[in-house]
Amino acid sequence: MCGGKQTLICSRTVHSLNVTAHFQKLEYFKNNYLLLTIKLLILALFGYTIYFGFNILYNRWYLELITTDFKNIIQNSQFLNNLKSAFIPAYLSLIPTIGIFINKQIGWFLITSFMYLVISSLAFLLMDSNSLDSADIVVGLMVIAFFLLIILIMNKEKIRNGIYNIKKKDLIIKNIIASIIGMGITIMVTYLKQ
Fold first, then answer.
1. For 98, how many CA atoms within 13 A lie in the half-sphere containing its CB?
2. Residue 177 is part of which domain span?
3. pTM higher than 0.85 for the full model?
4. Are residues 144 and 155 in the same domain?
5. What is d(CA 62, CA 82) in angstroms, rounded to the nearest whole number?
6. pLDDT digits (tens, 9 = 90+) for 167-187
7. Are residues 58 and 104 in the same domain?
8. What are phi and psi of 118, to 5 degrees?
9. Cβ 42 vs Cβ 111: under 8 Å
10. Are residues 107 and 18 part of one domain?
11. b or e along 151-164 (b: 16 or more beta carbons within 10 Å of the residue's beta carbon)?
12. Which among 56, 113, 143, 168 is most buried, taking Cβ atoms within 10 Å?
């Protein structure tokens, strides 16, 4: 196809296509670095919650796991309850982890409703617990502010309209729905823990 004098033209064309593709990738990262940062934070959170669940089980059941038969430990109801409660954060962080792979409105809902879930959980914890000192309250408020910042970033024009195709006129309704979903999951998890 490319021979003789055309080889030079062909190689320049291929090189210019590669450079163009490279610049398009850089432009994508430049325009979407906030969203990519949020997605990486969500992946890190999911990995940490899985590690945290295994760590809790390992610390509570290490001696039982090495001294007894696996069949006996699976039939132990206390082990099963600990298994369920140790991985509740991982199950919940699976919601936005699925959402980061879906660049449609459902992905936006999954990510944003999880942020509302964390905010409402922390708000209930701060209002309910009388044993928290002022440092715990300040840290809790800072975490709530951080998740509110993520919600604000998810509501930016470039992200909500450019990636998730959510129009400005629908934004308030969709945020209300996402907050109801997040608070509903918080209430459901609180009810199941009791």
1. 12
2. 32-193
3. no
4. yes
5. 13
6. 999 999 999 999 999 999 999
7. yes
8. -65, -45
9. yes
10. no
11. bebbbeeebbeebb
12. 113
53 in the same domain as 11? no
pLDDT in tens, 126-177: 887 777 788 888 999 999 999 999 999 999 998 898 889 999 999 999 999 9
Same domain flag for 71 and 164: yes
The vertex-65 CA angle with 59 and 66, nearest 5°, equals: 110
Q: Is the pLDDT assigned to residue 28 strictly greater than 80?
A: no
Same domain (yes/no): 11, 38 = no
Are the beta carbons of 90 and 49 closer than 8 angstroms? yes
pLDDT digits (tens, 9 = 90+) for 36-94: 999 999 999 999 999 998 888 888 777 676 677 666 766 777 777 777 788 888 999 99
CA distance 14 to 29: 23
Tell me how far apart the alpha carbons of residues 14 and 164 are, in angstroms, rounded to a whole number: 33
Residue ranges with strand state E in 111-186: none
Listed in sequence order, the residues at least 6 apart from 64 whose beta carbon sits closer than 8 Å to its beta carbon are 73, 76, 79
Whether 89 and 184 map to the same domain: the answer is: yes
Residue 13 has pLDDT above 70, yes or no: no
Q: What is the dihedral of CA 172, 176, 179, 183, to 10 degrees?
A: 160
**pLDDT exceeds 60 at position 11:** no
- Helix H or strand E encompassing 24: helix 6-31
For the CA atoms of 86, 88, 93, 95, what is the dihedral angle to 10 degrees? Answer: 150
Q: Quick one: 27 and 118 in the same domain? A: no
